[in-house]
Design goal:
mainly alpha; 10 helices; binds heme C
């Protein structure tokens, strides 16, 4: 009887540790698979990157109410939305230098880029893998009807479907997974095509 009991006691920590390790590995695998095939954004989202200039959509798209398409000029016609060139910013900032110190110093940086004729290397926030084909144009054209936005909708209501309330963000961050399951779910719900070749070359 004695040796058995000893063996049992000895094996207890092994079983416990083994169980713990299995749980951790299993949990990790499930987490990775879930992050890949499903889309709880908390699992996959990255923090907003620190941009070369502290430009905010809160000032421009929020307070000033500048239309999204004024800066993202190709969004209604092309695949990509487009990021404005420095010259487009200088339309206003040749004159507007900023009142408060923190804003003025950031605007001064912008004016330096312009004076040196240097492009700003904005860090991309949303990026699909190369094997996926996404086009803004068709979404901007079709979503107002699909979402039932009515006749005189504002363009940002369309953008916010995928990008959230950009005009309230001090720093742009991704708020929707935009993973395959996310794309396909909306397509399925709205009779948009779900064949592989629609999204993959
Ligand atoms: C005054 C110009 C301006 C206006 C107006 C503007 N944006 Fe932007 N937007 C930018 C610039 C510059 C960037 C790149 C820097 C950054 O990410 O903050 C950007 C970045 C973005 C990004 C992230 C792009 C990426 O890297 O993935 C999204 C999404 C976006 N804008 C959507 C919008 C929407 C929606 C509106 C309207 C509500 C809007 N923008 C209005 C200038 C503008
Ligand atoms: C159906 C979802 C969806 C909608 C609606 C949408 N976007 Fe996007 N947007 C994306 C995805 C996905 C990407 C990343 C594309 C890639 O990496 O090829 C992206 C990327 C961007 C970018 C950065 C890259 C680029 O294309 O220049 C900007 C800026 C942007 N979107 C602005 C807008 C604006 C402005 C609107 C509204 C007029 C809008 N988006 C509406 C899904 C959407
Ligand atoms: C239609 C005019 C207009 C355009 C176009 C414009 N801005 Fe501004 N911007 C302003 C005004 C007005 C302010 C607020 C100044 C203040 O509060 O003193 C501002 C503020 C800023 C600030 C201070 C931080 C903030 O966001 O409040 C930065 C940085 C800036 N702009 C960069 C840019 C960049 C980069 C572009 C081009 C992508 C751009 N602006 C395009 C009018 C404009
Ligand atoms: C909010 C709903 C919604 C989301 C999210 C969405 N789509 Fe779409 N998509 C649509 C609708 C609606 C159409 C238009 C279908 C039609 O009428 O032809 C469309 C069309 C397309 C087309 C063009 C199909 C054609 O007819 O040529 C492609 C490609 C596409 N989407 C890719 C994507 C990708 C990739 C994503 C995810 C990153 C995505 N979509 C996310 C609703 C959505
Ligand atoms: C509406 C758009 C859409 C359709 C339709 C679609 N995909 Fe995707 N797919 C995506 C997007 C976006 C990604 C990249 C994001 C991700 O990894 O989920 C992706 C990623 C993938 C990947 C790469 C996964 C990895 O390991 O990185 C494979 C494989 C794939 N899709 C296969 C398919 C097949 C097979 C079909 C048809 C049954 C299909 N897709 C239909 C949008 C789509």
């Amino acid at each position: 009887m004695r040796p058995d009991r000893k063996l049992l006691l000895l094996s207890l920590p092994v079983v416990l540790i083994g169980g713990l390790v299995a749980t951790i590995i299993g949990g990790f695998v499930i987490w990775r698979v879930a992050a890949h095939y499903f889309y709880p954004l908390e699992l996959i989202a990255k923090a907003a990157p620190t941009q070369p200039i502290r430009f905010t959509h809160v000032t421009h798209a929020g307070q000033l109410g500048i239309d999204c398409t004024f800066c993202h000029r190709t969004v209604t016609e092309e695949r990509t939305a487009g990021i404005p060139a420095v010259q487009q910013c200088m339309f206003c900032h040749a004159v507007i230098k900023g009142v408060e110190e923190d804003k003025a110093s950031e605007i001064a940086k912008l004016q330096e880029y312009a004076a040196n004729d240097e492009p700003i290397d904005w860090i991309r926030v949303h990026r699909l893998p190369d094997h996926v084909q996404f086009t803004h144009e068709v979404h901007i054209r079709r979503l107002p009807e699909v979402l039932g936005l009515g006749e005189d909708f504002q363009i940002q209501a369309v953008c916010s479907t995928c990008h959230g309330k950009i005009w309230e963000m001090e720093e742009v961050r991704q708020v929707r997974a935009l993973k395959m399951g996310d794309c396909v779910d909306c397509h399925r719900a709205n009779n948009a095509p779900t064949d592989c070749v629609i999204c993959h070359y």
